[in-house]
């Protein structure tokens, strides 16, 4: 299973979401309807098949409002589950649990949706040798969690931000005057631990990029025949990443051209939420 994120990274996101939901006066409904010392036991369960991710978000949301709550996971992040299978059981102060419910479900459902969609892409390219990776098209404030969910689904992470790798895009090329010049300038700036990737739009740009010696070349919106030509021209000298317009219907054919990596923005920007509920025991 996927190595879990430290609570230290998750807790600020959870607490910000709770503060947004509790607003200026707290949970009026729970305060009005439920005795202050009432307890409540419930279980989280998925209502359709999927891959779990984000159980820690649910645990921390409840613990933030009831530190004495007990949260017992019955599944692991990265695990495939069938409809109705309990993911976790919880016992807590009733007001606290119901006040935390929506935040817990929002984050758990969102991350499980990303993991589920990622797994579908990973399964679609099985046996080809291609790797599925994400992009920076993430929900603001949730990048670390959504990229974790991609890992739970069997994908790998692209760069996390602007500061951990160089990715020369089309507008950088336009501003610099050419993809080769941009790569050479990048090589002159960074140290040996920083990868340099360049995006190219056609085979002529690919040839120019290969001469400059990047670590990775992104083949942006290449047709399948051109992807095959690019693989033959590169001859393993660089990592080739296919990107642009990738869908579940097209990803297998893209992988079969021989590219090394396929980046899919949809993993995070278009993943449907996995329907998960909190049901009273």
Mean pLDDT: 97
Tally of discrete structural domains? 2
Identify low-pLDDT runs. Answer: none
How many distinct helices? Answer: 11
CATH architecture assignment name of the largest domain:
Alpha-Beta Barrel
Structural notes for this entry:
The longest helix is centred in the middle third of the chain and has 31 residues, at 94-124. The chain has helices spanning 7-22, 28-33, 55-65, 94-124, 143-152, 170-176, 179-189, 203-212, 224-234, 251-255, 266-269, and strands at residues 39-46, 50-51, 70-73, 80-81, 86-93, 131-133, 166-168, 196-200, 216-220, 239-243, 261-263, 276-280. The chain folds into 2 domains: 7-116 and 272-280, Alpha-Beta Complex (Aldehyde Oxidoreductase, domain 3); 123-269, Aldolase class I (TIM Barrel). It is elongated, with a radius of gyration of 22 Å. The protein is built from 11 helices and 12 strands. By secondary structure, the protein is an alpha/beta fold.
């Amino acid at each position: 299973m996927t190595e879990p994120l430290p609570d230290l990274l998750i807790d600020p996101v959870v607490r910000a979401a709770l503060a947004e939901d509790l607003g200026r006066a707290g949970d009026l409904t729970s305060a009005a309807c439920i005795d202050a010392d009432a307890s409540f036991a419930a279980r989280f369960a998925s209502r359709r098949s999927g891959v779990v991710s984000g159980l820690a978000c649910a645990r921390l949301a409840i613990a933030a409002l009831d530190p004495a709550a007990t949260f017992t996971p019955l599944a692991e992040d990265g695990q495939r589950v069938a409809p109705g299978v309990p993911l976790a059981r919880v016992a807590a102060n009733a007001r606290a649990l119901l006040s935390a419910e929506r935040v817990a479900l929002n984050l758990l459902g969102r991350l499980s949706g990303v993991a589920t969609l990622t797994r579908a892409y990973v399964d679609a390219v099985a046996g080809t040798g291609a790797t599925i990776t994400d992009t920076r098209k993430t929900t603001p404030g949730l990048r670390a969690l959504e990229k974790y969910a991609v890992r739970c689904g069997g994908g790998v992470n692209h760069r996390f931000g602007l500061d951990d790798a160089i990715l020369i895009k089309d507008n950088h090329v336009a501003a610099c005057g050419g993809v080769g010049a941009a790569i050479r300038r990048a090589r002159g700036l960074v140290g040996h631990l920083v990868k340099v990737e360049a995006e190219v739009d056609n085979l002529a740009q690919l040839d120019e990029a290969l001469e400059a010696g990047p670590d990775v070349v992104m083949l942006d919106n290449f047709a399948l025949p051109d992807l095959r030509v690019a693989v033959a021209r590169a001859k393993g000298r660089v990592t080739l990443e296919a990107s642009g317009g990738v869908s579940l219907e097209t990803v297998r054919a893209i992988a079969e051209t021989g590219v090394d990596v396929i980046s899919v923005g949809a993993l995070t920007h278009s993943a449907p939420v996995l329907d998960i509920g909190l049901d009273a025991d």
